[in-house]
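Reminder: ligand-aware prediction takes two inputs, not one.
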Amino acid sequence: MSKKFTTSSGIEIKEVYTQPSGMEELPGEFPYTRGIQKDMYRGKPWTMRQYAGFSTAEESNKRYHYLLGQGTMGLSVAFDLPTQIGYDSDHELAEGEVGKVGVAIDSLKDMEILFNGIELKNITTSMTINATASILLAMYIALAKKQGADLKQLSGTIQNDILKEYAARGTYIYPPGPSMRLITDIFEYCSKEVPKWNTISISGYHIREAGSTAVQELAFTLANGKAYLKAAQSKGLDINVFAKRLSFFFNCHNNFFEEIAKFRAARRMWANITKKLGATDPSAQKLRFHTQTGGSTLTAQQPMNNIVRVSMQALAAVLGGTQSLHTNGYDEALSLPTEAAAKIALRTQQIIAFESGATDTVDPLAGSFFIEELTNEIEKAAQVYIDKIDAMGGSVKAIEQDYMQQQIAASAYQYQNDIESGEKTLVGVNKFNEPEPVGDTVFRVDDAIRQKQIEQKQRLKEERNNAEVTLALQELRIAAGGTANLMPYILTAVERYATLGEIADVLREIFGEH
Ligand SMILES: CC(C)(COP(=O)(O)OP(=O)(O)OC[C@H]1O[C@@H](n2cnc3c(N)ncnc32)[C@H](O)[C@@H]1OP(=O)(O)O)[C@@H](O)C(=O)NCCC(=O)NCCSC(=O)CCC(=O)O
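Here is what comes back for the chain with succinyl-coenzyme A:
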């Protein structure tokens, strides 16, 4: 056969493997290649955490209650673009975007509606929020306080990963320096006030979605992780404290074995990176991660095929030892998922967890000559990139020099060529394709919700104590010009119902825009 046998990262696959190194490692022990817990899913299944949010807080709240009723175990909030880049719904740049790719949140009022009927102390919530992470985290904390929750027990995650925004995703506001300050302020604040909060979700997912290979996804994510470790250490924070609550987020793409090996390599590499930087506490060395099945692998053609793709990707994530998982809806190449598609996505996780037996033993593929060697090879290939980035002075420098962006673009181009030439097969797209009408169940968000948000904000401004808001914003402005931790100032502003846009504008004034 003339077919080339390589993984998506170009690692050559041999016809047969013989015993490689790495076979003596144990789960729950350094370097955690085989998993961070001794018993893994026998002790506790991964968190089924479906990413959702659209339109108004009321609508999204309904979807959360629906998902919880269907057996989802954790919440994951999608915010609309204006919220992600620090504009209220009434800002002119928000036109056409309010409630589109996620829920619109202008103030604590919206947050109260978003979690109506949900006790924050009883659930963990992830919020995909980066440039405005401190504001949304402050709103979440303010709401938890209003509900009477013990902040020492409150748990969840904010994405808070600005480096991959510059490199791949795009929702940044401020320049890298002040952005890194906001992030490390959160590390410091949470380690004292909300110690169970996962303060960042260092994300390879979007790097992969932008077209990187598996090896690049791993390498760039870990390099970014190193940059956060070093930024926090140079602020004087203790790696054995803050690193316990760093978390990761990876993509799970089509190449089944490569993805499993990637997760195993990620744990081993992170354990070594943190150890070298002084971490001695095992919790600070363990790489904990969320996985989302690959959004860009979904096809608009023959959308039902996506259910099969998602199943295999989800199984790979579980065999790779994920802590938390989102499975995509089969219709997401066309629109936001309908309720029916969201349900099948969740059922896919439940079938893997409760029917397949995949959870009955720890790291079931360990000792496979192929998996062990592929784990080693991915590690080696990723290390080459990390060394290169280190030589450039770390991730911030590499991103400023467009290094990651160019590497990702080159891989995306190669992938597209391979699809077009037929070198790579996509079922229903470049092989076994057939004409198919687009279904009529496509989900759309109504533009009228912007008007609703605008009216709500006007009411808010009439109801709140505006003198107190102005004072809180002024105090934040002064603090931002100095070196104090900004979280307490943001929390006060949020509790007085300052809006997201008002707070982000104060920081724009002081930090400038990127
Ligand atoms: C750490 C993770 C990865 C997972 O946290 P979870 O709370 O769900 O799970 P966990 O930490 O494994 O488990 C919760 C608790 O149970 C414990 N536990 C787990 N397994 C155990 C076992 N076998 N034995 C004993 N204890 C165990 C853990 O130690 C932990 O307790 P302790 O805490 O006490 O130790 C977190 O960061 C997370 O949930 N991330 C989700 C991120 C996400 O959803 N992102 C969506 C992005 S969506 C996106 O970006 C889409 C695209 C776009 O918008 O552009």
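Residues 37, 39-40, 43-44, 47, 49, 51, 74, 76, 78, 124, 126, 128, 155, 157, 169, 196, 198, 201, 205-206, 247, 249, 288-290, 292, 323-324, 326 surround succinyl-coenzyme A (CB under 6 Å). The mean pLDDT is 96. We will return to this case in the review session.
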